[in-house]
Amino acid sequence: MDISTEDYERFCRYLESASGITLGANKGYLIRSRLSRIMEEVNAPTLGALLNLLDRSSSASLKVRVIDAMTTNETLWFRDEYPFEILKDTIFPEIGGPRGLPVRIWSAASSSGQEAYSVSMTVSEYQQARPGTLSAGVQILGTDIAPSVLRQAREGVYDELEINRGLSAERRSRFFTRDGAKLRVREELKARVEFRECNLLQAFSMLGPFDVVFCRNVLIYFSNDNKRDILARIAKTLKPKGYLFLGGSEPLASYSQEFEMVRCPRGVVYRLRG
Ligand SMILES: C[S@@+](CC[C@H](N)C(=O)[O-])C[C@H]1O[C@@H](n2cnc3c(N)ncnc32)[C@H](O)[C@@H]1O
User: Fold this and answer.
1) In a structure prediction context, what are the per-residue pLDDT tens digits for the chain, which is 274 residues long?
2) 193-197 and 238-246: which strand pairing?
3) Is residue 73 in contact with ligand 1, taking CB distance under 6 Å?
4) What is the CATH number of domain 5-70?
5) Span from the CA of 103 to the centroid of ligand 1 (angstroms)
6) Extents of the domains making up the chain
7) Any atom of ligand 1 within 6 Å of the Cβ of 122
8) Residue 135: other Cβ atoms inside 10 A
9) 74 CB near ligand 1 (under 6 Å)
10) Domain 82-272: assigned CATH number
11) Nearest atom of ligand 1 to the alpha carbon of 149
12) How far is CA 184 from the centre of its chain?
């Protein structure tokens, strides 16, 4: 598929306004590899023809498929490890006493669910080590813009390749059951996790309030303006002194002054200023 400069630029504008994802220069290969099947199916010989179809008001489902295909859903269990250590060592001891309300945690770009279920495993392990804590329960919400990864997250079924990315043998046998050639998340983990579709460019205040938000490895795809806007709105969904985890390579300072950095032995977390 040849892509004209005009179609490339038009597609970049379309993708950013629909999802926030900024493609940058020279990503024609990404468009080709991710969209050629859809284009064949809808009989769009060029990117321009696909954009014309997307411009028609009746093509909402095509829009969802194109955005879904253009997302990068790379994820793994206990990604970077330190956020889950900080949950156990710092956050749960602080908020996990008998406060009467469930602790609410949001995985704001959950992809296929590994982050949300890693939080759920962390809760199980914390409660096993300290019976009686987090007694009002923990509710974990996973959201993403891409319906295909949300389907897998809700099902909670993973193949060996996915399972082997970050999961210890002990956690694998404790928290998963075999399902043919795949592994299925146990009900104990699923019971506290819910997945919903949410585009971070759109309103999400009704999902809150949260004690902890994970917004990891997604803001890197967005413009500085969108980063600032999303972080300002995340601050509003957090409870006073609520915590925010960003990806390891995503500094906060230039995008928000509403958080203070809390340095922990193995990494940093941000806390809403009181
Ligand atoms: C690289 S994954 C990160 C998954 C997980 N947070 C982690 O750190 O392992 C990025 C996710 O962000 C999602 N995403 C991209 N744009 C989004 C948007 N506008 N709103 C919500 N999710 C979005 C993608 O669908 C993808 O699943």
Assistant:
1) 789 999 999 999 999 999 999 999 999 999 999 999 999 999 999 999 999 999 986 778 999 999 999 999 999 999 999 999 999 999 999 987 666 789 999 999 999 999 999 999 999 999 999 999 999 999 999 999 999 999 999 999 999 999 999 999 999 999 999 999 999 999 999 999 999 999 999 999 999 999 999 999 999 999 999 999 999 999 999 999 999 999 988 888 889 999 999 999 889 999 999 7
2) unpaired
3) yes
4) 1.10.155
5) 23
6) 5-70, 82-272
7) no
8) 13
9) yes
10) 3.40.50.150
11) 27
12) 20
Q: What is the 3-state secondary structure (H, E, C) of the chain?
A: CCCCHHHHHHHHHHHHHHHCCCCCCCCHHHHHHHHHHHHHHCCCCCHHHHHHHHHCCCCHHHHHHHHHHHCCCCCCCCCCCHHHHHHHHHHHHHHCCCCCCCEEEEECCCCCCHHHHHHHHHHHHHHHHCCCCCCCCEEEEEEECCHHHHHHHHHCEECHHHHCCCCCHHHHHHHEEEECCEEEECHHHHCCEEEEECCCCCCCHHHCCEEEEEECCCHHHCCHHHHHHHHHHHHHHEEEEEEEEECCCCCCCCCCCCEEEEEECCEEEEEECC
CB 107, CB 214: distance < 8 Å: yes
**Is 149 a pocket residue for ligand 1 (Cβ < 6 Å)?**
yes
CB neighbours of residue 103 within 10 Å = 22
Tokens of 177: 């059951």
Q: How many CB atoms lie within 10 A of CB 86?
A: 22
